[in-house]
Design goal:
The complex is a heterodimer of chains A (about 1000) and B (about 100). Chain A is of the alpha+beta class. Among the domains of chain A are: about 170-295 and about 430-505, FAD/NAD(P)-binding domain (3-Layer(bba) Sandwich); about 620-670 and about 765-860, Gyrase A, domain 2, CATH 3.30.1360.120; about 675-765, Aminomethyltransferase beta-barrel domains (Alpha-Beta Plaits, 2-Layer Sandwich); about 905-1000, Elongation Factor Tu (Ef-tu), domain 3 (Beta Barrel), CATH 2.40.30.110. In chain A, strands 9, 10, 13, 14, 15, 16 and 30 form a seven-stranded mixed beta sheet that branches. Chain B has about 100 residues and is of the alpha+beta class. Chain B has one domain (about 1-95): Folate-binding fold, CATH 3.30.2270. Classes of the chains: A alpha+beta (about 1000), B alpha+beta (about 100). Chain A: Belongs to the GcvT family.
């Protein structure tokens, strides 16, 4: 017999048929089904192959804790691997495939690994592949040989290369009370808090609110529990102060009650509605948090407990009551606690035969005996399952008499014919979020479970209130009472509570027998997803791993995608027994975010793609309209080249740079950081900030300045213009604009609050165009009015004010290109107007526009430094800027810059390189004295920037090289094994072109 | 983590930039006492517990704040302006609100 759909019952809509495929086979299911329930209803028992041994695996659970039934969901070209089938809601057109099988799920060649089980025990890889080579089949080299095959055989699903076209978004939310979990406790908490007028958010990872009411068979206020839940949800839905978040996993709990949640907005739809994202990342800041996250049922550890058809008892109850699916026709149960008896009744009612209930306890309560009788099940008290039989589905189980005090088995093995075995090893509260919030869990001996700590032991910045099964209160009546109390407390409510809803339920004893493992012959699995057996845990103990943290890492127990939701406590229990210590002394590991896997896309959200913020210069549209290829530099977009048709990037920048040196070129420099430094103490402040003097600078003049950090290393450079006695305009490099601003603010606010200086970022207020070349002055003369631009009026580093095309401009004669050059600044709104006027005026003179590549080429030719050389590791001396270090005054960094290590002679210093083989050089390539291509070593430095220099007709580079100047005129080699570029270079001065500066001084 | 800016009220940590250990004492700028400079630039306490820190409200009013934060729990026990004479501004601000 096989599983099947029941005729009635469940929260599915039998009138709505949904078509989907699994491993290429077409199936149908109903609205409300998960992939797991729909396949199970069609008799599918085999869902995957295990991680290491490739054992056939079926469904263990019905929820987020599922370790076995992981599938890959395909959406067009996009593969999303390792999704629990229990969490996939089916929709028309859903395509899912199984994982870790070759060539097919039913017939898998790697299943041969099962025979090698003894070899593939804990630590197999460490023992086999690490350390020195001893013989041919050991050591690190052997690993390099085997890795490819092992990686193919082991593991989970694989991601595809296709780009994910889905949209993700992030929401920031604020509420008074966040309730996590929508079972009876969570619903009561949300309602109680909402009744107080609090702004409430209620999140549940399932699509249906109600938690256990969806499958419990209990009644609340005289109606089926599910009806009560539906009514309560309906009451909440209508309120303005409540936001309901189904399909939302709260996965992270951070400081000050900041929680992270993932809402699966449209995964359950054939296609998302217009504008709807796939996932939404919620950053929720809650005044109070109610954790009503319930509990996970634990498996029992016995030989063959991983065979398809062996399932947790409550999962079967869920399949029957929530999805109308019978996981088997002849069902046996194996339990150490009372909760499994409820499952027996539920499955009996749904139409299955309950053949036997094996209970490790020999003393059963009359109540449980009555339930077993009602289920027409044979009661095997003081018995345990010692083996299971079958292949891809269960055919039978073997039971034996069991003494739960000694763990001894006795008597004859007895065969029981069954196609499904339900197991229950007790319940573990879902304390993950509380654990993330810093709380240390406490072992409760009667519940045989880790419970969340008392509120007094919570961390001050992460305070929550627990309710229901989360606190170890497993009955619905307790959940309802605790839920309401938690909701009232969270909302600060005081109103006298009305009567609580009444519950009719078979509660039984919440305490299980302290039995975790049945030791018999065969593989007994603890961690199903990572294939960790009870024997692996004991082996780790024998090999000396006594700490639970080491055990976890050595065996990989609890480190799979399910993060040990079902395996944590059984693993600890087995370790504790091996150590001969009680469980609380062994301790538990801290749970970390995320609670369940999170899509990377949701974390990137709008920081990616169309919604990524960008900064555009005032002339941006003009650049686009005039053929610029844009380059993204941080948030800025800047022209890289203005390519002509058919030109390569190199041809374009060489043409632009050449034309600039021959006639004139113009470049957009609006991105430079600009800071207004104003006030009576502005000059004194700049003297402290820059290594050189600014108080001596005349009004109407500019000066090149260098800043150091406190530790004496170079920080940033740029020109600062004195516009008035107390008014300076500082420019910074584009990349450091924000950092320099913070640097200045810090010193003004914290160190020197007595200085009367204001700093204001004015980067966006000014548009800047740099125009340089032999004809630059003529071009300005042709379009500037209101001032002369001749050498007397506008000398090198002089500033004048005038107009271009009727708008005011400020012109400073300074040069980055090494040519006679001017920076023309206008108000940002006039940027394009002035730019176009300059272009127009330049036409008769052969003015070209140039981009970042030509800018970089000309600065390399001049040997100027940028962020590539001021990289946080270089000093002013390294960059030959020591002439800027004033000896007349202290400045930031002056006390530390002369330290022994910073003035050593073997430091890397700025030099120029010329490729002697006339081939391009690469940034980042190393420089060596003697070349050995097969064994590259002996770096004496590296290349920071490189280009083809049209002025020299050679491939050149700037580099930081040991010894620096002392090597000028000598030969060395580039050694770049990654890009296979080797060859001779000559080390020269970084001032390649016009070292005397005659061109810019005119 | 929330930091209560005296100007702006409680704000998320993403609005702030950490600007270093608040226990540093900058030597006299003209001082050549290398030990003192070395201690100022490099020596840090790294306590497990309350720590005196400078944070800038860079995504807000841009004031620098002196924050005492517990490095184990992220509990913030006090926030004030790093700059002495800001205190009067905060008081005025509080008085205006009252």
């Amino acid at each position: 017999m096989s599983p099947r759909r029941t005729d009635t019952g469940g929260r599915i809509d039998r009138l709505k048929t949904i078509r989907f495929t699994f491993d290429g086979v077409a199936y149908t299911g109903h609205a409300g089904d998960t992939l797991a329930s729909a396949l199970l209803a069609k008799g599918v028992t085999l869902f995957g192959r295990s991680f290491k041994y490739h054992r056939p695996r079926g469904l263990l659970t019905a929820g987020v804790e599922e370790p076995n039934a992981l599938v890959t969901v395909l959406r067009g070209e996009v593969r999303e691997p390792n999704i629990a089938a229990t969490m996939v809601e089916i929709h028309d057109g859903l395509v899912a495939i199984s994982q870790n099988r070759f060539p097919s799920l039913a017939w898998d060649v790697h299943a041969v690994n099962q025979l090698g089980g003894k070899i593939l025990s804990a630590g197999f890889y460490y023992k086999t592949f690490m350390g020195p080579v001893i013989g041919p089949l050991k050591g690190t080299h052997f690993w390099m040989f085997c890795e490819h095959f092992i990686r193919r055989a082991a593991g989970l699903g694989s991601a595809g290369p296709a780009k994910d076209p889905a949209r993700y978004e992030r929401m920031n939310a604020f509420c008074d009370v966040l309730v996590v979990g929508s079972g009876p406790a969570g619903l009561m908490a949300a309602k109680a808090a909402a009744d107080q007028g609090a702004r409430v958010m209620l999140a549940d990872l399932e699509p249906r609110f109600g938690g256990s009411t969806n499958w419990s068979d209990e009644t609340i206020d005289g109606a089926p529990a599910a009806d009560w839940a539906r009514r309560t949800v309906a009451q909440l839905e209508g309120r303005d102060n409540v936001r309901l978040l189904p399909r939302t996993t709260v996965w992270g709990y951070y400081d000050n009650n900041t929680l992270a949640a993932l809402e699966r907005v449209s995964d359950h739809k054939e296609r998302p509605a217009k504008g709807e994202p796939r996932h939404r990342y919620w950053a929720i800041r809650a005044r109070s948090v109610v954790l009503a996250t319930g509990a996970f049922e634990r498996p029992l550890v016995f030989p063959g407990n991983d065979r398809p058809g062996v399932m947790l008892a409550h999962a079967a109850e869920r399949y029957a009551n929530e999805f109308g699916v019978l996981p088997g026709e002849r069902i046996a149960l194996f339990t150490n606690n009372d909760s499994a008896y409820r499952a027996a009744i539920a499955l009996k009612k749904a139409g299955a035969a309950i053949v036997a209930i094996a209970d490790v306890r020999s003393d059963l309560s009359p109540e449980m005996r009555r339930l077993a009788t009602e289920a027409e099940a044979e009661i095997l008290a003081g018995h345990a399952v010692v083996a299971t039989e079958g292949g891809k589905a269960l055919s039978g189980v073997k039971v034996q008499r069991f003494d739960m005090v000694t763990g001894a088995l006795s008597g004859e093995e007895r065969n029981i014919h069954a196609d499904c075995l339900l197991m229950s090893g007790g319940w573990s509260p879902t304390i993950h979020l509380a654990s993330q919030a810093g709380a240390k869990a406490e072992w409760n001996a009667s519940r045989q479970a880790f419970l969340p700590p008392k509120p007094a032991q919570q961390w001050p910045t992460q305070q929550w209130i627990g309710a229901g099964a989360f606190t170890g209160s497993f009955s619905t009546a307790e959940a309802i009472a605790e839920g309401r109390a938690a909701g009232l407390r969270a909302a600060g409510g005081t109103s006298p509570p009305a009567a609580l809803p009444t519950v009719e339920a078979v509660d039984g004893d919440p305490d299980p027998a302290p039995v975790f493992e049945i030791r018999a012959k065969g593989k007994s699995f603890v961690d199903f997803q990572h294939d960790v057996t009870a024997e692996d845990v004991r082996l780790a103990h024998r090999e000396g791993f006594v700490s639970v943290e080491h055990l976890k890492r050595y065996t990989t127990l609890g480190m799979a995608t399910d993060q040990g939701k079902s395996s944590n406590v059984p693993g600890l229990a087995i370790m504790a027994e091996a150590l001969g210590k009680p469980i609380p002394e062994v301790g538990t590991t801290r749970f970390r975010p995320p609670f369940a896997p999170v899509s990377i896309g949701s974390l990137a959200a709008e920081r990616f793609g169309d919604l990524k913020p960008g900064r555009l210069t005032p002339m941006h549209d003009w650049h686009l309209a005039n053929g610029a290829t844009m380059y993204s530099a941080g948030l800025w977009y800047r022209p890289m080249i203005y390519g002509l048709s058919g030109e390569t990037i190199e041809q374009a920048y060489v043409r632009e740079a050449k034309a600039t040196r021959e006639s004139a070129g113009i470049v957009d420099v609006s991105t430079l950081g600009k800071i207004a430094v104003q006030g009576p103490d502005a000059a004194a402040f700049l003297d402290r900030v820059y290594t050189n003097m600014f108080s001596t600078l005349a009004v109407g003049k500019a000066r090149y300045g260098l800043m150091l950090r406190e530790d004496g290393f170079a920080f940033d450079d740029g020109t600062t213009w004195r516009l008035g006695e107390q008014d300076f305009l500082m420019t910074t490099t584009t990349a450091n604009a924000g950092k320099v601003m913070q640097h200045l603010e810090y010193f003004l606010d914290v160190i020197w609050p007595d200085l009367k200086v204001h700093v204001t970022s004015v980067t966006d207020e000014w548009a800047g165009a740099a125009i340089g070349g032999p004809k630059a002055r003529q071009i300005l003369a042709a379009c500037v009015t209101g001032t002369a631009v001749d050498n007397a009026t506008l000398p090198f580093m002089g500033i004048v004010h005038g107009q271009i095309a009727g708008v005011p401009v400020m012109i400073c004669r300074l040069s980055f290109s090494g040519e006679m050059a001017f920076e023309v600044y206008s108000g940002a709104g006039h940027g394009t107007h002035v730019w176009q006027a300059l272009i127009e005026a330049g036409k008769p003179f052969g003015l070209v526009t140039y981009g970042l590549e030509a800018l970089g080429t000309m600065r390399i030719e001049k040997g100027h430094v940028t962020g590539a050389e001021i990289d946080g590791r270089t000093t002013a001396r390294d960059l030959h800027l020591d002439w800027m270090l004033s000896k007349k005054k202290p400045f930031i960094g002056s006390a530390m810059m002369d330290r022994e290590g910073l003035i050593a002679s073997d430091r890397l210093e700025l030099v120029g390189l010329i490729a002697l083989d006339n081939r391009p050089l690469n940034g980042g390539a190393h420089i060596v004295e003697a070349l050995d291509e097969t064994n590259p070593h002996g770096s004496i430095g590296h290349i920071t920037a490189c280009c083809y220099s049209p002025a020299l007709g050679k491939h050149i580079a700037l580099a930081l090289v040991e010894g620096g100047k002392a090597r000028h005129g000598t030969r060395a080699h580039v050694s770049d094994p990654l890009r296979n570029r080797f060859g001779p270079v000559e080390i020269v001065s970084n001032h390649f072109y016009d070292p005397e500066g005659t061109r810019m001084h005119g | 983590m929330l930091i209560t800016c005296p100007y702006c009220g409680p704000r998320d940590v993403i609005e702030f930039t950490y600007q270093g250990d608040g226990n540093r004492e900058r030597p006299d700028p003209a001082s050549q006492n290398f030990e003192a400079w070395n201690a100022y630039v490099y020596d840090r306490l790294n306590p497990a517990g309350d720590h005196n820190e400078i944070w800038q409200h860079s995504g807000g009013c841009r004031a620098h704040l002196r924050v005492v934060r517990n490095t184990l729990t992220h509990e913030i026990s006090s926030v004030g302006f790093a700059r002495g004479d800001h205190a009067s501004a905060a008081r005025r601000n509080a008085e205006d609100k009252a």
